[in-house]
């Protein structure tokens, strides 16, 4: 069967009424959390993990993917109207979008963001469908040493990409790796770090850790910030639609943003943040109206919005084909797969093709749903910005607690939820990223298993890890991903110090 046949099969699965319902819930929730400042897709998927524990795996994963796409869409609303990005990838959109809103052109800014997101999401999802099978064919040649090298690349890129410090990212990763060895060793049967507690013999629940670190930790962190001055929401004045000039200035940035966002999203150290900044820079160079940048250039909204949505589809390439998460939301989605006993990777395409292709096809449907939801209901999304933060985060706290009790009714599990929630808060206070902890807990046992297999085959010879060309290349990429961010950050700090010294002179 070719890609078209698999995609048609996937569309038949995604078009089932129950899966359409899950997709609608996902895109609606995703847009909602994207609109609300400070609540991203990762937090929402983490909250829903315990709730979906007893649901159909395909429907739950379709809903999670819808939340991811919807969060990218919704983030543009707060960026444009509030100058406060709901998602980190929408920071660039705020630069020009809010200027347009202040000039009475909030409608066209929202329209180009929504249509650009639709175009990019559609093209990138089609690219995902056609590229994924080739990546799977390549990955099927992997042995234990190649998989271990791939896990090392995942560990390093996630640690280096998140947060402002590589050292803090690696520290967070090692916390996750320490959590991953709690329980009974599958090879020797020995207990590790269980401290005689029977509840820890099966290891730590990924769901509990994800909900605690993302939801509880974020709630405590926001509560600790105290009251802030109310933010001003720019009213949408005039027509919501774009005129002929807006269309002519937007369609090329949409395509360029897609071309930039998809491959960068698929890279281990990529992500929507990087692609949206690159797209903005490209549009500034290509624009026939460079003087408008910084004052409300529509290209500065169209390109970055297309780039961050294309990047979301690109992120699913390494996640589905290699089991490699490159964003916080992808890490939580990986936990969602494992919750149902599924491991993303090349074997998943062979053992459960209906689920994988149903998930990919559902993204096409989700794009159409999001376009219908975003433009006509913009007034509703704007009203959500008036919800008081104490109500919002109190609701998150209650929902997280009830979800954990529903998935695992245990006093000990609730204690872990509170403990890890406090840990998540402390890590945020000191600037440590959360995603590497989750990735370490999920991928740690797999990396250990593959390392043991490789060393068993080679009878303890560690050089086997670099004798394979693929493994050597992956390990070299991991080293580059570790060193390059440190050099760039050091150079950036040096430039800042030079500027400060120059200003003092």
UniProtKB/TrEMBL annotation:
Listed name of the protein: DUF112 domain-containing protein
Cross-referenced PANTHER family: TRICARBOXYLIC TRANSPORT PROTEIN
Pfam families: TctA (PF01970)
Domain of life: Bacteria
DUF112 domain span: 20-438
Stored InterPro entries: DUF112_TM (IPR002823)
Segments crossing the lipid bilayer: 20-49, 61-82, 109-135, 147-163, 169-187, 316-335, 355-379, 391-411, 417-443, 464-488
Keywords: Membrane, Transmembrane, Transmembrane helix
UniProt key word Transmembrane helix: yes
């Amino acid at each position: 069967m070719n890609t078209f046949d698999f995609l048609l099969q996937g569309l038949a699965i995604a078009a089932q009424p129950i899966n359409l319902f899950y997709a609608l819930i996902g895109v609606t929730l995703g847009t909602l959390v994207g609109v609300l400042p400070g609540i991203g897709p990762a937090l929402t998927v983490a909250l829903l993990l315990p709730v979906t524990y007893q649901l159909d795996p395909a429907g739950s994963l379709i809903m999670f993917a819808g939340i991811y796409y919807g969060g990218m869409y919704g983030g543009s609303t707060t960026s444009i109207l509030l100058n406060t990005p709901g998602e980190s990838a929408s920071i660039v959109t705020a630069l020009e979008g809010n200027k347009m809103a202040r000039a009475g052109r909030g409608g066209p800014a929202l329209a180009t963001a929504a249509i650009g997101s639709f175009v990019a999401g559609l093209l990138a999802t089609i690219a995902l469908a056609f590229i994924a099978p080739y990546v799977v064919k390549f990955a099927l040649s992997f042995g234990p040493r190649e998989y271990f090298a791939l896990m090392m690349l995942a560990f390093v890129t996630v640690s280096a990409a998140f947060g402002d410090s590589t050292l803090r990212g690696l520290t967070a990763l090692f916390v996750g790796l320490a959590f991953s060895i709690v329980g009974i060793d599958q090879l020797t049967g020995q207990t590790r770090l269980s401290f005689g507690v029977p509840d820890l013999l099966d290891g730590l629940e990924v769901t509990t850790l994800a909900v605690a670190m993302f939801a509880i930790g974020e709630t405590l962190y926001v509560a600790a910030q105290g009251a802030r001055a109310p933010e001003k929401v720019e009213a949408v004045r005039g027509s919501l639609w774009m005129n002929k000039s807006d269309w002519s200035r937007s369609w090329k940035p949409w395509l360029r943003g897609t071309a930039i966002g998809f491959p960068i999203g698929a890279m281990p150290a990529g992500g929507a943040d990087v692609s949206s900044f690159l797209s903005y820079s490209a549009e500034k160079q290509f624009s026939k109206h460079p003087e408008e940048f910084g004052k409300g250039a529509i290209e500065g909204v169209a390109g970055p919005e297309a780039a961050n949505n294309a990047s979301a589809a690109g992120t699913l390439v390494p996640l589905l084909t290699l089991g490699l998460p490159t964003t916080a939301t992808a890490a939580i989605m990986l936990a969602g797969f494992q919750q149902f006993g599924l491991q993303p990777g090349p074997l998943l395409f062979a053992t459960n093709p209906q689920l994988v292709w149903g998930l990919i096809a559902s993204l096409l449907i989700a794009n159409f749903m999001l376009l219908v939801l975003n433009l006509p209901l913009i007034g509703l999304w704007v009203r959500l910005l008036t919800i008081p933060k104490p109500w919002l985060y109190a609701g998150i706290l209650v929902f997280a607690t009830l979800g954990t009790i529903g998935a695992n009714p245990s006093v000990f599990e609730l204690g872990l939820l509170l403990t890890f929630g406090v840990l998540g808060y402390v890590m945020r206070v000191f600037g440590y990223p959360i995603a590497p902890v989750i990735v370490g807990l999920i991928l740690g046992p797999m990396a250990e298993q593959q390392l043991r297999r490789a060393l068993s085959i080679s009878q303890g010879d560690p050089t086997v890890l670099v004798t394979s060309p693929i493994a050597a290349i992956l390990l070299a990429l991991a080293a580059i991903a570790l060193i390059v961010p440190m050099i760039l950050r050091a150079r950036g700090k040096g430039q800042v110090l030079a500027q400060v010294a120059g200003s003092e002179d």
